[in-house]
Structure formats: structure tokens, C-alpha cells
Specification:
alpha+beta; eight-stranded mixed sheet; 10 helices
């Protein structure tokens, strides 16, 4: 499996550059590196490198990793906090901040590591607990993960995984282990010239695409990605490519439903890149159920080997710490192979009332796996409602649903409790109970002013905190300072008596 990401590449590459620093300080770490490289042809202790040998030799060849000037490389020597600071700052090209960190008592100007340590402490990347930077303290796996993830904005889960992949011990990180990470990480630097190496279909709506290098942030952004990726035979990408946690350059790519056996040609940035044979494999969903008067869910179960993509991608690894895990190149974890549900963006299902005509229900944005459940929500067309007592069947061209029917029931609207103006263009609406699962999503409220004027506000997606969600005024509307507005729901999704909001003068 590929264990290092684009950002880790930069970090450990940085580490390697700075690894000339001696643990005990017998050699000036700022000494001319070219002199040390010339002396690097034959280290007396290279035989002690073990699994790090190839990586060390590669980095010595590159002039990245240097010895101590006395014929020793010390591949098993631990790395100190001072060394780590130099490696991160130098390797990442961070802007030096020589200002003396406030309250730090053991960081003196003139020390070889001062500029680097001061820079990271001033950035908030490296901590100086109790006013002590402790430059000679040894770096643990946890600290390495924290420092690098803060400096790079990279998820800690991948970093911890990469460290464990080279058998790094929790207590200390050695030069040899660092060298292994560096060599792997050099393959993982983001590049605007990344090429498609391989593409394969995981199921009818999910591709897995591996690149020669990770994509840049610009190329992975939605608008640009939609321009970069194109397919023939009517297939299209439906959301951003998402880097798998722990991977160098393998992405989960959601598509419109593929036709089984159809060969699709992937063009990337205008060049033919790969062919993919469409999968006829539908995702095995478990059940359907009603959640409101016009909304229902289609649930799947992690325990049955079905995982939402949010559990296995770098971007969500922190927010979903409770359910996040890392799949290998075969999409297995702890001996179990998982089917991946990619983004539901723009997905639809068909819902048919017994004895009635089928309707197309559209996915409700950001309801795919909220509150720890894999249960995307789908909403009926505007004006349609689920009629109590009627049996409904849900079908899909991208999923098999084991229990595909439910009998609709009368579900009371959500109850509004209070509203609070945040500013002239937005307000908070609090319900009497946490609706969970983003049932605020794609809902609106109407505000009727004391003068009879009317404003409409729409829910700000993903803003819900428990029972409270933010609503933004639509069409350039603004609350008039000092005026009291009566709040009511647009459509019967919520009710409330005498709910008002006033923007203070």
C-alpha cells in the first residue's frame, strides 16, 4: 500500500534535509553540507541501518542526508525537538520568524536551532509547555504527527499511519525511520503535471483513480476537476476526487451510474488517460425509512462491509475520527474488504406508491452520513408528500435495497423554539429538539416584518449545531434594525407559535 501523502512528502523531505544535526551536538548542523556529502561515501555504521539501508543510501546519494563528520551516520539515533524544528522549517520553506517567542525561557538567540524553533513556536505549530521549548528532548511519534500536521494542514491519521508503516516506535523517531519516510514521500509531492496511472471501477457509481503524483489543491477543486475529468459514452464525474487516507495519490471519484460492460475512455486535461469498464455492481443498501412528511432515507451498514467514502478519505479523517479507518490497495481493513459508497451529490432514486405513479426523489445535500449513520436522505418533488397509510417502494439504478418498502405515517413537523438575529443578513433558528441528520437541509423560513414586509431565509448547509441552524436571507434581503419579524416555515416542515426575531439597533 502507498503510505505517504503529498504533504507528508514535504515534511519528511524537510526532515531529511535537516537531519545533519547531531543528536548530542558534536557537529555544527549549519556546517557546509557539501563537505559532509563528500565524506558520505562510506559510513562506518551503515551496516546498522537494517530496513532503512536503501532509503539512507538514496538520500545520501541525493545529498539530502548527511553524517556527523566523524564517519558515523547514526541511523538509529533518535531525533530531538531542535532537529525537528530545523527539518520542518527548512524542508517546507517556511518563512523564518526570529522574534523571541513570548514566555519561552529556554530558547536563546545564537543557538543553531533558534530561528527554526522560534518560527514554529510563533506559528503555534510547536508547543512550549510551561514556557519550556526543551530543544534537546526526543521527538515522539505523537509529537511528530502533531507538528507536521499543523505545519502542513494534513490529517493526523495519515501521518500516524505512515510512521507506523516504517515501524516507528511511539517513544522516539530515528534517523533511519525518517529516511524511509523521506524516500516514500518524495513520490508524493503535489504536481500540476500529475498523470493518470490507473483507473478502475469499484461499483456502478464509484471509480478509483491513481495518479503519478497527488493533485494540486487547484486541480482537486470542484470546478477545475469537472473540467479536467471527462468521459465518453455519457458518463460524467459528479463531485470532487477525494484522496484516500494514507495513500500517495489514489482518489475516490464519484460518477453517474455506469453501464455494465461499457468501456469508457477517461480524458484528463484534454489527453486520453485510461479506459474503464463499467461495473454492473450495485451497492448493497439495507433498508428505507421515512423521516419527515416529504423525506425518506436509504440506509447501509458498515458492519456488512459497506462504507461511506467519508470514513476513508483524508479530508474527513479528523471530523469522523470515531468511524475513520484506512483501507489498503485492495480496499481491505483488518482482513475485511469494503464496498465504498462515493458522493451522493446529484444522485436520485425512484419511489413508487402502491397503486400510484413513480416519482423521482433527489438526494438532500450533506445528509449522506451525518450523526454517524450511513443513511442519505432523499426528498420528494416540490409539492409532493408521503401519504399516511400508503406503502411505498424505493428502487435505484445504483443500489440494491434489501428492505425496499415502508408504510408512510403521519410525522409531526419540527417545532421551532426561538430565533436570534446574528447580523442583518443571517439568523439562528433553534428547534425544541435536535432534528439530527441535517433535516434543516434545503429548508426555508419566511420573516414577516411589523410593517408587513416579507423576507425569505434559507438554511446554511452544514451549519447545524444540535438543535440550532443558521439561515441566510435570500435575494439580497436584509433585516431592518429595530424591527420585529414573525418567523414561519415555508412549507410544513416546521411549526412554532409567536416565534420572532429582532435585529438590535
Amino acid at each position: 500500500m502507498n503510505f505517504v501523502s503529498n504533504k507528508m512528502a514535504a515534511i519528511v523531505l524537510a526532515a531529511a534535509i535537516g537531519a545533519s544535526a547531531a543528536v548530542a551536538g558534536p557537529v555544527n548542523v549549519l556546517a557546509n553540507s557539501s563537505v559532509q556529502v563528500k565524506a558520505a561515501a562510506g559510513f562506518q555504521d551503515i551496516k546498522d541501518a537494517g530496513a532503512s539501508l536503501a532509503a539512507i543510501q538514496e538520500l545520501v546519494k541525493q545529498g539530502v542526508l548527511n553524517g556527523y563528520g566523524n564517519g558515523l551516520l547514526k541511523p538509529n539515533a533518535p531525533v530531538t525537538r531542535a532537529e525537528l524544528a530545523k527539518l520542518v522549517v527548512t524542508g517546507l520553506g517556511l518563512t523564518i520568524n526570529k522574534e523571541q517567542p513570548a514566555g519561552v525561557t529556554d530558547l536563546a538567540a545564537g543557538k543553531w536551532y533558534f530561528d527554526y524553533a522560534a518560527t514554529l513556536v510563533n506559528m503555534g505549530v510547536m508547543q512550549a509547555d510551561g514556557g519550556q521549548m526543551k530543544p534537546n528532548a526526543l521527538v515522539t511519534e505523537t509529537e511528530l504527527t502533531n507538528v507536521v500536521s499543523k505545519a502542513l494542514g494534513r490529517d493526523a491519521a495519515s501521518m500516524k499511519h505512515w510512521a507506523q508503516a516504517v515501524n516507528a516506535k511511539p517513544e522516539t523517531i530515528t534517523r533511519g525511520e525518517l529516511a524511509q519516510l523521506v524516500v516514500t514521500s518524495q513520490k508524493a509531492k503535489p504536481s500540476a503535471d500529475a498523470k493518470v496511472v490507473q483507473a478502475k471501477s469499484l461499483n456502478t457509481i464509484t471509480l478509483e483513480v491513481t495518479f503519478s503524483e497527488p493533485l494540486t489543491a487547484e486541480d482537486a477543486a470542484l470546478d477545475q476537476a469537472l473540467k479536467n475529468f471527462s468521459f465518453d459514452n455519457g458518463l460524467s464525474m459528479q463531485n470532487v476526487p477525494q484522496l484516500k487516507t494514507g495513500s500517495i495519490s489514489t482518489y475516490i471519484v464519484p460518477t453517474t451510474p455506469q453501464k455494465a460492460g461499457t468501456v469508457y475512455e477517461l480524458t484528463y486535461k484534454g489527453e486520453a488517460a485510461a479506459t474503464v469498464t463499467g461495473s454492473g455492481e450495485k451497492i448493497e443498501m439495507s433498508s428505507v425509512g421515512q423521516v419527515s412528511y416529504d423525506t425518506f432515507e436509504v440506509e447501509s451498514e458498515l458492519s456488512k462491509g459497506i462504507t461511506d467514502y467519508g470514513n476513508v478519505i483524508s479530508a474527513y479523517s479528523v471530523g469522523r475520527a470515531a468511524t475513520a479507518f484506512i483501507l489498503d490497495e485492495n480496499n481491505s481493513y483488518n482482513g475485511k474488504t469494503y464496498e465504498i459508497i462515493s458522493s451522493m451529490r446529484a444522485k436520485q432514486v425512484t419511489i413508487t406508491p402502491e397503486g400510484g405513479a413513480p416519482m423521482t426523489a433527489a438526494y438532500v445535500l450533506f445528509t449522506q452520513a451525518t450523526d454517524g449513520r450511513q443513511a442519505p436522505k432523499f426528498r420528494l418533488p416540490a409539492g409532493e408528500v408521503l401519504k399516511p397509510g400508503v406503502n411505498y417502494r424505493v428502487t435505484s439504478e445504483w443500489a440494491n435495497i434489501a428492505s425496499s418498502t415502508f408504510v408512510a405515517k403521519e410525522i409531526a413537523p419540527l417545532e421551532m423554539q426561538s430565533a436570534k438575529a446574528l447580523n442583518e443578513t443571517s439568523l439562528e433558528l433553534t428547534l425544541k429538539a435536535d432534528p439530527k441528520d441535517e433535516l434543516f437541509a434545503v429548508r426555508s423560513i419566511e420573516l414577516t416584518g411589523a410593517d408587513g414586509s416579507k423576507l425569505t431565509a434559507t438554511y446554511k448547509l452544514t451549519s447545524r449545531k444540535g438543535a440550532t441552524g443558521v439561515f441566510d436571507l435570500a435575494n439580497g434581503g436584509k433585516l431592518a434594525a429595530g424591527m420585529t419579524y414573525k418567523v414561519s416555515a415555508v412549507s410544513p416542515w416546521a411549526v412554532g407559535d409567536e416565534i420572532t426575531v429582532t435585529l438590535a439597533k
